[in-house]
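Report of the visiting student (M.T.), summer placement. My assignment was to run the structure pipeline on a short list of targets and document each run. The first record concerns pancreatic elastase II.
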Amino acid sequence: IMKLLILAFFIAGAYGCGLPTFPPILSRVVGGVDARPHSWPWQISLQYRGSTGAYYHTCGGTLISSQWVLTAAHCISSSRNTYRVYLGKQNLGVANEPSSIALSPAKIIVHENWDADRIRNDIALIKLEREVATTDTIIPACLPPSGKILANNAPCYVTGWGRLWTGGPIADNLQQALLLVVDYATCSQPDWWGSLVTQNMVCAGGNGQQASCNGDSGGPLNCQNIDGTWDVDGIVSFGSSLGCNYPKKPSVFTRVSAYISWINNVSHTYFQQQPNY
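After the run finished, the structure tokens were exported:
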């Protein structure tokens, strides 16, 4: 019986949250590097359908359960009425990667207090048309505990198909970059981001070497727990128009731990509703 229990535990634990089958290679390389394929299996590509019928990558996002994706409110546009969520992607330039699946949204919920002028509450949830099975290449990230505050200089990784340098093209292969967290006391100083940053945000990078670029919008700031699991602690929100990695202008993320009750409320509200926009 003990053998059965142990086996059952490992089967249940094999696909929890935040534990990739193929762990990321955590380099300290300055700037973005190609990620090990499928080492960030919760990373999604949010794509919209253009006038020709072709789909275009517009933002990143994070799978947080079998049917819910977290992204930024500013990624959702009322003028783009057809989206799809691509899961299990590594190379955006490869049309039919065997590990990947594209699903339509059943529901898109933008935070009711999203303020585009002041970039507040930059968070949205996408309910997928159906539940997605967990595989080696599609695994949800863990949500942080409510109220979690990252320590200054905590090492986290931003991932996405964003621009690798200011004005550059978006990347084909998924990128990762190490960013060190900048605490609120520092980031809110007048010569940093000042009052534009609130305590519901996380700053990271801004050392003039590493930062996320605009193509990464909506994607995760991934931070590892002591037990090896990964939380999605941030959602890429905004950066400096001066460039991707300007000194004292770190990337700014929506702090996910400030919105746990909102995430829970939304996911429970739409738990059994039929698809509609």
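The first helix runs from residue 2 to 14. Confidence is low (pLDDT under 50) at residues 1-13. I thank the supervising group for their guidance throughout the placement.
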